Amino acid sequence: MKIPRRVFLKRAAAAGAAAAILGYGDWFTFAGNFLEPLQVGNPFENYPNRGWESIYRDQYKYDSTFTFICAPNDTHSCRLRAYVRNGIIVRTEQAYDVSEYQDLYGNKANAGWHPRGCLKGYTLARRIYSPYRIKYPRVRAGWKEWVEAGFPDSTSSENRQRFFRRGEDDWVKVSWDEAFTLVAKTMLYQMKTYGGTEGAALLRAEGYPEEMIETMHGSGAQVMKIRAGMPLGGVIRIHSLYRFANMLALYDGKYGARGWTNYDWHGDLPPGHPMVTGVQTFDPDHNDMRHTRLFILMGVNLVENKMADSHWWIETMERGGKIVCIAPEYSPASQKADYWIPVRPGTDGALILGVTNLIIQKQLYNVDFVKRFTDFPLLVRLDNLKLLQAKDIVQGYQNATLTGYSVKVQKIPPELREKWGDYVVWDKNSNSPKPVTREDVGEHLGEKKLDPALEGNFAVNLVDGTKVEVKTVFQLYRELTSEYDPATTAEITGAPQELIERLAQDIGTIRPVGIHTGEGINHYFHCDLTTRGVFLWLALTGNIGIPGGNVAHWAGNYKSAIFDGLPTWNAEDPFNPALDPDVDGRDIKVKKYFKSENIAYWNYEDRPLIISDRNTGERVVLTGNSHMPTPTKTIWTANSNNLNNAKWAYNMIANVDPHVEMVIVNDWEWTGSCEYADVVFPVQSWVELTLPEMTGSCSNPFLQVWKGGISPLYDSKYDAEVCAGIADKLSTLTSDERYRNYWKFILEKRSEVYMQRVLDSSSTTRGYRADELLKSEKGWLMMFRTYPRIPGWEQIHESKPFYNKTGRLEFYRDEDEFIRYGENLIVYREPVEATPYLPNVIVSSHPAVRPYDFGIPDDATSAEDRQARNRKLPWSTVKGTENFLWKNGFRFYCLTPKTRHSVHSSWMVVDWNQLWSSNFGDPYRSDKRSPGLGDHQINMNPEDAKELGISDGDYVWVDANPEDRPYKGWKPTDELYKVSRCMLRAKYNPAYPRGVIMVKHAPFMATHKSVRAHESRPDGRALSEDTGYQSNMRYGSHQSLTRGWLQPTMMTDSLVRKAYYGQTIGEGYEPDIHSPNTCPKETLVRISKAESGGPAGIGVWEPATTGLTPGNENDSMRQYMKGGFIKVTE
Amino acid sequence: MFRVFNWQLNREMDYPFQAVRPNRQFAAVFNINRCIGCQTCTMACKSTWTFNKGQEFMWWNNVETKPYGSYPHHWDGKILSTLGPQDWKGETYTGKTIFESAPETDVALGYLPEDKEWRYPNIYEDTPPPWTQGASLPVHATFFFYLQRICNHCTYPACLASCPREAIYKRPEDGVVLIDQQRCRGYRKCVENCPYKRPMYNHSTRISEKCIACYPRMEEGYVTRCIAACVGKIRLQGWIKPRNEAIADSPIDYLVHEAKIALPLYPQFGLEPNIYYVPPRWAPRDYLTQMFGPGVERAIEKYTNPDHELLGVLALFGATRRIIQRFKVTSTEAIGYDEKGDEIVRVPIEEPVIIRPEAHLNIT
To answer: Which residues in chain B are closer than 8 Å to A1122, comparing Cβ atoms?
Structure first.
């Protein structure tokens, strides 16, 4: 404890600096006070100098607080409390107020929900005050010139070079008024130019297919694509963009702009849910997970996601339940599991059939439930694979008159009800076929005194006298799944056989069972098959619609439909707007003039899926008519990092957006989407909102209304005010008052008028008053039928039909398209790209699977061909085939899940989040190659890395199918190729099996300017010079590895499903319900070393040389890992 | 040297001061089973105390993924290997503490981390030993878990014992250990000797700092920022007594001394740390015993098969941001009370299902 005197004095001098900081003025005063030794005595008893403790009490002080909703696209909408000092939010904390949330009946939530809010809420202030905030409206210089030059031809390469150098051009600060004028003028120009026959001719000349032009119906506004990004997060201010799209019908009285959707494109929508139930997504509120006793996670990480509510399921381990995790890797979710079943990426569909086989073979299914609530007893004709209809076998059959839920609550257009007809079961009581209607479900089946056979092969006489063989749907599944015996299933999936058997046994014997899926299965081409398939396990065992028993799929806060009156805001009839603020919301006239459209078509190079049938020579359009997109000439997005998070982002830049004339982005911070835009509008963050806002959630029952608590930073506006401003300008330019009238209450700064109308007209919120909700500064309960909201509860407990043709959980799809594509039954298909085998092959030999192959040969490699080819082969043959990409050395599966450290790209460049999100987070940037405060990393199995000569911490190149990635037509000498080739930093991670790598999705992409900065700045930061854009990547993006896809089974005109809002049942396209799902995990990559990870690019990254890291453990590390430093004897 | 009794080691041990137990001792239980590694606690602390110049690398609260993650790098492996293999006999520690292994010129066994060891705070997040084809309980064939760390506000702090100026002290009213920010001269003996590496040196102000248990909040009856922040509901704050003085309805005493599901971190170092962990039910027992001492198997068994009272206490985790002094569990609810005996929070043990009239729909 003795310190040499010279050291003491040297340190004392240094402490002078500390003295100044602590307010002692100079060193001498300080020394005078403290050079005298202080008698401390016993520091456990009476420490004599405690006055200094005021330092931390002072640091903690605050002036005031307010609450607000943190509303990114994570679904939780947590109410946080902001602590304000001198007008600045110094920190935040969860509000701990859910126990006070109640509904109009006096029901209350409870403290079990506490607390709500995650790390991102705590670093939110770093985003609010970040250097990347957009301070004023900006337009791209070349684009402004183009507008001012009177919109010269945008298709000529000369004009593109001059006016459309996105990503490389300068930016001009403009006033709001000028920005509104430029945008409004361009909109008027486009509506005029692309409308009518002349517009059609222009587009035809540009090369758009006839179907895309036809679907415009001559309405020029339809070339504008307006995306309200994840709009449930902002019922008023984000949905305002759809309202704007609707308003544009004022121009020609026919159609507004197209409203781009979110949930389907991003691969969030589980397309199988409407295929089984008719309902968009069948997820419950998260507190329902508390009731589950067998909790299955399949391709979802509910540890790193859904963090506000993870505890509800993790506590299963304290409550006598079991947790099972199905994933390729030992993931954070695997950690919590009773058992973890590893699977080859993309093969979950085979596992589903394998477990189904066991449930059937071992008779673990609930016969009664299956007969009453599923289509398993319905008869299928083996001649044409259609469901047997009552009119097929009963002469002069009249469809039964429906009297119950189907007409009292559900709304079915009469022509559809006629078309669907009634179905047939084999009644065991009479040993004959008998009709059943969509209302003969649940207890009503018993009322009809029918006992349908579950299995069997029968022959029936058709009305025309012929005999036809029929089987029950159940019989078909018994046969189909018999090829998925445990050994075969284990071989296909790589899952251990005993775990497959154990899972089937548990599903059959534990109750309730809940299965939760996510992007891990949904980001594959055949996500419809897997998300249909998971219902098999639960429907067979009666685990649907009961507390704790449900299929749930988690991705995105998509459920705007919980406000079923939302169309009073986003689709109010612009020709009959209600200008009286006191009108009851139910009296608003709703007319949706804007057609919704999936961005997936823009992402597919602004085209539908068209192939050539080699058998007939015909041109076949596989995109249904109801889905058909229009050409894209304007893109306007809010609350979304549209380009950054687009699959195939660099192809959009290189080959698609050159056809687009105006790209507008609303955002708080400058993003990759801004880098390649034409107009950027700064908008307010959640803590700055000058007008009230409202939100809800798909995963909790809370209704939240709030307003900002600090003044807006810089010159930012409430998103709806941006819409109102452009509308106002349109009125000025056209002398048509109706544009600005449509925004009356926004222009008067009274958004609560519109909010009240939504509350009035929504079945879940009628009776609430917006002003009271706002004043309460807390959340309230949405009024669903149950708390927690349990989808299917009414169907199972009250025998109400589902929202499809048969009224039952449907496992058989007899639409022409499904039969044609070989998916009338739920089959297993290899992925369309991420497979070692023949891409997209149907692995089956069942005779009721009769796919049409369009004559496309097995060796066809184009994406079009692979998506369309429907080839059926048994596993014994499939396992001998080889994917052309695999053959060419592209052998790594590339998983791209979402990280806990951000919400997609939001928060990606916040300093503190960056420091924690990789192995390379360093606030002092000791390695100047790091683009920011860390590096975006690639998780690799160490053995794979070593084989490729890659050390832990090295920089690597990651390349995908060179035919079209990173963009079509790339050349190694292109500047864009340098910008877009994906470079990541290697992290050895044995969680991943050989052949599987993982990259967290949505880093801020490399752009022309960020790369230029990275290569020219002495500090190496990838910080664009004029825009101040900070990239997470030295080069490329994870979207350098992905591309757009379109699934034929998701583009039918015949699937029956509930409409987005309300109770109407229809068929064909429905936004965010029946529509393609781009699947970013459909890729195979090659990895090669780019640079050594050691200092200045020499040698190995220092931590990996210590002997303490994965794949490089020394003896001491091994001893530590075995617990070898402690021994316990009794 | 003085002899003091360390109940975690079940024996007396040497300590440089005549340590006196505080009137109340701040303590908390962290349930590793529930932790989701979200770092909300980390950001809560950072945004309150360590956002200033010189503190860029500091994270007074951190969550690291074991076995490969550590902040600073390999802090536990280093002190374990320096201390060498040691023994427990039953529940008595027969090995040496870091005080008992101290070199001649020092108070405790320790080392001073280099600057580079404070980089990459989340190194090897979510990283297990080699991949296996599946895993199942009772012990996963490959594993990782999150270890959440703050200052343990030890009963026998090494930092306090090492400070040449006696500028570190323990508050009698709550057992919080503080580095006097006025009297500290930045000698860094505390940084060197704390085996948990919780004191951190600020190279801008040239003095050392560490977790202060958010005493400005504690003084008002609120839990620390990191404990309030825990969205995984893994943390519960309260007060602890030594084993022979445990209070039955004090939540921390109940969890540590009665239910015995929460264990101290590396008790063998000899500091009697006051953050207690419910060990993860899936991790290898030898590794866990090295970290939490004997009692691991018993803790896991009881935690995964809780009786009704324990289930109730578990329901109180995360229910309130106020300090629960006493608890009560009824057949349906768990209730927390403050030091005055007033009810702070009430939470149902089972989640209810409420049905509303038929006009309302689950599928809108």
So the answer is: 284, 286-287
Tell how strand A1065-1067 and strand A955-959 pair up: unpaired
- pLDDT for A39: 79
Burial track B177-209 (b if 16+ CB lie within 10 A, e otherwise):
bbbbbbbbbbbbbbbbbbbbbbbbbbeebbbbb
Q: Is B199 on the interface with A (CB under 8 A)?
A: no
Chain Cα centroid distance, residue B231: 17
Nearest-Cα distance to chain A for B54, in Å, is: 11
Residue A17 has a pLDDT of: 47
| Cis ω for the linkage preceding A115 (within 30 of 0) | yes
d(CA B286, CA B139): 11
Query: What confidence tens digit (pLDDT) does each residue in B22-77 have?
Result: 999 999 999 999 999 999 999 999 999 999 999 999 999 999 999 999 999 999 99
Task: Tell me how long chain B is.
Answer: 364
Q: What is the mean pLDDT of chain B?
A: 97
The CA–CA distances, whole Å, from A994 to A524, A846, A1038, B132 equal 20, 33, 20, 11
Q: Which residue of B has its CA nearest to A21?
A: B205
Q: Which residues of chain A have pLDDT under 50?
A: 1-2, 15-25
Q: For residue B185, which residues of chain A lie inside 8 Å, CB to CB?
A: 11-12, 15
Interface test with A, best of B4, B43, B222 (most A CBs within 10 A): B43
B361·A763 Cβ contact <8 A = yes
Q: Which residues on chain B are in Cβ contact (under 8 Å) with A279? A: 363
Output b/e per residue, A951-960; b: 16+ Cβ within 10 A: bbbbbbbbbb
What pLDDT was estimated at residue A24? 46
For the segment B346-363, what is each residue's pLDDT rounded down to a tens digit?
999 999 999 999 999 999
Nearest-CA distance A414 → chain B (Å): 21
* pLDDT recorded at residue A16: 46
Q: Is A279 on the interface with B (CB under 8 A)?
A: yes
B291 pLDDT higher than 70 = yes
Hey, are the CB atoms on A18 and B207 less than 8 Å from each other? Answer: yes
Separation CA A884–CA A752 (nearest Å): 58
β A892-895/A996-998 pair status: parallel
Q: B249 burial class (0-12, 13-18, 19+ CB within 10 angstroms)?
A: middle
CB contact under 8 A, A11 and B350: no
- Residue A331 in 3-state DSSP? coil
For residue B208, the Cα-to-chain-centroid distance in whole angstroms is: 21
- A336 close to B (CB below 8 A): yes
3-state secondary structure at position B21: coil
Give the residue from A855, A1006, A997 showing the smallest Cα distance to A932: A1006
Stretch 851-880 of chain A: residues touching chain B, C-beta under 8 Å:
none
Residue B158 has pLDDT above 80, yes or no: yes
B193: which 2 tokens? 């000797």
Q: Measured between CB atoms, does B24 come within 8 Å of chain A? A: no
- List, for residues B185-225, the tens digit of each pLDDT value: 999 999 999 999 999 999 999 999 999 999 999 999 999 99
Peptide bond into B67 cis (omega under 30): yes
H helices, E strands: number in chain A = 43, 40
Residue pair A1063/A1049 in contact by the 8 Å Cβ criterion: no
The overall longest dimension of chain B from CA atoms, in Å, is: 80
Q: How far is A532 from chain B (nearest CA, A)?
A: 19
Contact partners, residue A738, CB within 8 Å, separation at least 6 = A250, A574, A575, A577, A731
Owner of token pair 């209350």? A108
Cα–Cα distance list, A411 to A421, A491, A1068 (Å): 16, 47, 16
Of B68, B214, B361, the CB nearest to A1110: B68
